[in-house]
Amino acid sequence: MGSEAQRAWMLRVLGVDVQAIGRAQVEKQSRLAGALRAWQFARRGAVANLQALQVAFMETGKPLGRYIARGGLRDVLSDHLALIDQAVDSLGNASRPKLAKLPAAAAGLRATLGAIKGDTRLGVLESNPFGVTVNFRTQLSSAISTMLATFAEIESNTSPNGNAP
Prior knowledge:
Layout: H1 4-14, H2 18-58, H3 63-89, H4 102-118, H5 120-126, H6 136-155
Helix pairs in contact: 2-3, 2-6, 3-4, 4-6
C-alpha cells in the first residue's frame, strides 16, 4: 500500500487516510470528486450563459430589458442552481466527499432534474430573440445525469454505512 512517508503525505496533503479507508474507498471518493468537479464546470457555464443573456437584455436600452436583466433572468436559473447546490453541498467538498450522503443527495438531484426538464421558462430563455446561445436545460440535465450515474455506480458497491462491502 506504499511506504509510511507516502501514507503520511496522502493524509497531510489530500486528507485521505489510505490505510484506514482502503483502495476501494479512495477510488469511490475519486470518482465522486470527478463528478462534483464536472458539476462545478457545468454550473460555471450556465452562469456565463446567463450573464451573456443579461448583457443582451441590458443592451436593448429599454426599461423592461434592464429590469429583466437585473432580476428576472437570475431568478429563473437561481431557483434550480440553489436546489442542485444544496444537494451537492451535502456531500462535502470535492477533495473529500462524504459517501454516506449519496442517497439523500441523489434524491434531491432527481427532483431537481424533473423540475428543470419541465420548466418552460428555461425554454423561453433558450429561444431568446437576441441570438445568444444558451442551453440551460441541456447543461444542467447532463451534469445532473452524470452525477446520478456516478452516485448509482458508487452506491452499488457500498454498504449502508458508507464503506466498501
